[in-house]
């Protein structure tokens, strides 16, 4: 049994990010939402694009107004009016000014803006009552960003803020990584599709659906490959097909030590390198992780195989704890692969046998900006999927610790939106 931190390190070490040449494509701005940059985004526009005014006021020559005061006001001739979006028509000479508005381009000759509150206007003359600072209220061209420099680095996920920046910079085509392909297989003679009426002893294959949802939410491409019975030859064929198709294979079930648990044996027969056989965590102990190396140097890189436990709760916990970070690294994301833990005050006593890192599912509530954790009510065993439906977090009790007292702080792996009450 590997400690969780060691299993995590082993898994992340096995993941080699997608190739920034071979596994990248050019897409347009709106298609790039939530994709990951495979090359630096470089703008060809300075920010600001032009020297412009940060205020409504008057564009002036500093030397004309540097000694202005209410005792010694300076009167200037207004020779132009420059709203935002219009190009200045006049050069500002000594004794002159231009009416200017926020965002409008500074006219040649002027270097400073006097805000309108510090002026008085009469017809085409303006009186300056206070000396401004030199270059006051001028936003200088390229002072935020210089064309040709890296705007966004490779490995950045493109979300609203980044998309806004790219749009403003007219970066209309982005080189992004393709989505990792993730094959999903459910193993078990007892499993049926949700639309099939159950015969006695049968069970719906919920893992196929849960894992498809999770893979999609992680920004990868799910390839649902259906249910495979517990028969070694059929399993072997299904696994080979999955390995040939995907970057990552997720199977669930068949990783315990029962008579019908064939996964590890088949992986070995297919030439996999076994890296994780079990992890000191609860739920999720039988997690199996293997690597398939390419047979030829020219082939696409390795395929990572996760044999997840069949128990629906265990499969989900293993996904959040190990698979999601691995998929994020694989997808080209530079960092922050997760999982994200928040600190919460437990509303109840939590317990563990201390022998394994224990995850207790329940609800994260956000009260005045502070998290509280309420364990799920009813049976907290990994076969009980039903009380998982209201859960949004997994409280973690480290190995060696047996309890968290009500009112004490606990780290919670957050996987859903907090409840605001
Ligand atoms: P196993 O690891 O194959 O022994 O499965 C452990 C438990 O999880 C058994 O009760 C299975 O019936 C259940 N199980 C396995 N696969 C699935 C699945 N795809 N969907 C829902 N439950 C499953
Ligand atoms: Mg099974």
UniProtKB/TrEMBL annotation:
<comment type="function">
    <text>Catalyzes the insertion of molybdate into adenylated molybdopterin with the concomitant release of AMP.</text>
</comment>
<keyword id="KW-0500">Molybdenum</keyword>
<dbReference type="GO" id="GO:0006777">
    <property type="term" value="P:Mo-molybdopterin cofactor biosynthetic process"/>
</dbReference>
<keyword id="KW-0479">Metal-binding</keyword>
<dbReference type="Pfam" id="PF03454">
    <property type="entry name" value="MoeA_C"/>
</dbReference>
<dbReference type="InterPro" id="IPR036688">
    <property type="entry name" value="MoeA_C_domain_IV_sf"/>
</dbReference>
<dbReference type="InterPro" id="IPR005111">
    <property type="entry name" value="MoeA_C_domain_IV"/>
</dbReference>
<dbReference type="GO" id="GO:0061599">
    <property type="term" value="F:molybdopterin molybdotransferase activity"/>
</dbReference>
<dbReference type="Pfam" id="PF00994">
    <property type="entry name" value="MoCF_biosynth"/>
</dbReference>
<dbReference type="InterPro" id="IPR036425">
    <property type="entry name" value="MoaB/Mog-like_dom_sf"/>
</dbReference>
<comment type="pathway">
    <text>Cofactor biosynthesis; molybdopterin biosynthesis.</text>
</comment>
<keyword id="KW-0501">Molybdenum cofactor biosynthesis</keyword>
<protein>
    <recommendedName>
        <fullName>Molybdopterin molybdenumtransferase</fullName>
        <ecNumber>2.10.1.1</ecNumber>
    </recommendedName>
</protein>
<dbReference type="Pfam" id="PF03453">
    <property type="entry name" value="MoeA_N"/>
</dbReference>
<dbReference type="InterPro" id="IPR001453">
    <property type="entry name" value="MoaB/Mog_dom"/>
</dbReference>
<comment type="similarity">
    <text>Belongs to the MoeA family.</text>
</comment>
<dbReference type="InterPro" id="IPR036135">
    <property type="entry name" value="MoeA_linker/N_sf"/>
</dbReference>
<dbReference type="GO" id="GO:0046872">
    <property type="term" value="F:metal ion binding"/>
</dbReference>
<keyword id="KW-0460">Magnesium</keyword>
<dbReference type="InterPro" id="IPR038987">
    <property type="entry name" value="MoeA-like"/>
</dbReference>
<dbReference type="InterPro" id="IPR008284">
    <property type="entry name" value="MoCF_biosynth_CS"/>
</dbReference>
<dbReference type="GO" id="GO:0005829">
    <property type="term" value="C:cytosol"/>
</dbReference>
<dbReference type="InterPro" id="IPR005110">
    <property type="entry name" value="MoeA_linker/N"/>
</dbReference>
<keyword id="KW-0808">Transferase</keyword>
<feature type="domain" description="MoaB/Mog">
    <location>
        <begin position="183"/>
        <end position="329"/>
    </location>
</feature>
């Amino acid at each position: 049994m590997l400690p969780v931190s060691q299993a995590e390190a082993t898994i992340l070490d096995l993941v080699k990010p997608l190739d920034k040449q071979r596994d990248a494509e050019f897409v347009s701005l709106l298609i790039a939402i939530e994709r990951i940059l495979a090359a630096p985004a470089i703008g060809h526009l300075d920010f600001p694009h032009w020297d412009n005014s940060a205020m409504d006021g008057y564009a002036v020559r500093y030397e004309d107004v540097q000694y202005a005061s209410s005792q010694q006001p300076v009167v200037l001739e207004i020779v132009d009016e420059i709203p935002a979006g219009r190009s200045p028509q006049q050069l500002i000479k000594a004794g002159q000014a231009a009416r200017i508005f926020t965002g409008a381009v500074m006219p040649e000759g002027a270097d400073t803006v006097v805000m309108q509150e510090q002026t008085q206007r009469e017809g085409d003359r303006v009186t300056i009552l206070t000396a401004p600072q030199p270059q006051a209220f001028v936003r200088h061209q390229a002072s935020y960003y210089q064309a040709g420099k890296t705007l966004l680095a490779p490995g950045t996920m493109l979300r609203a803020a980044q998309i806004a920046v790219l749009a403003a910079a007219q970066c209309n085509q982005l080189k992004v990584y393709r989505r990792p392909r993730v094959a999903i297989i459910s193993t078990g003679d007892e499993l049926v599709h949700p639309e099939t009426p159950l015969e006695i002893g049968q069970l719906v294959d919920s893992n196929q659906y849960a894992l498809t949802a999770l893979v999609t939410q992680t920004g990868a491409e799910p390839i649902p490959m259906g249910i495979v019975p517990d028969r070694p030859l059929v399993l072997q064929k299904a696994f080979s097909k999955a390995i040939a198709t995907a970057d990552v294979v997720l199977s669930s079930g068949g990783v315990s030590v029962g008579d019908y648990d064939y996964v590890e044996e088949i992986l070995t027969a297919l030439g996999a390198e076994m890296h994780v056989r079990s992890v000191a965590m609860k739920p999720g102990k039988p997690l199996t992780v293997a690597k398939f190396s390419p047979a030829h140097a020219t082939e696409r890189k390795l395929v990572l195989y996760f044999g997840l436990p069949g128990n629906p709760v265990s499969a989900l916990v293993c996904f959040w704890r190990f698979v999601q970070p691995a998929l994020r690294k694989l997808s080209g994301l530079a960092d922050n692969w997760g999982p994200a833990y928040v600190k919460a005050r437990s509303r109840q006593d939590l317990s563990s046998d201390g022998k394994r890192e224990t995850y207790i599912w329940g609800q994260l509530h956000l009260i005045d900006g502070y998290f509280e954790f309420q364990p799920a009510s009813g049976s907290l065993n990994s076969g009980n999927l039903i009380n998982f439906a209201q859960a949004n977090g997994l409280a973690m009790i480290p190995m060696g610790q047996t309890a968290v007292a009500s009112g004490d702080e606990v780290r919670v792996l957050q996987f859903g939106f907090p409840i605001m009450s």
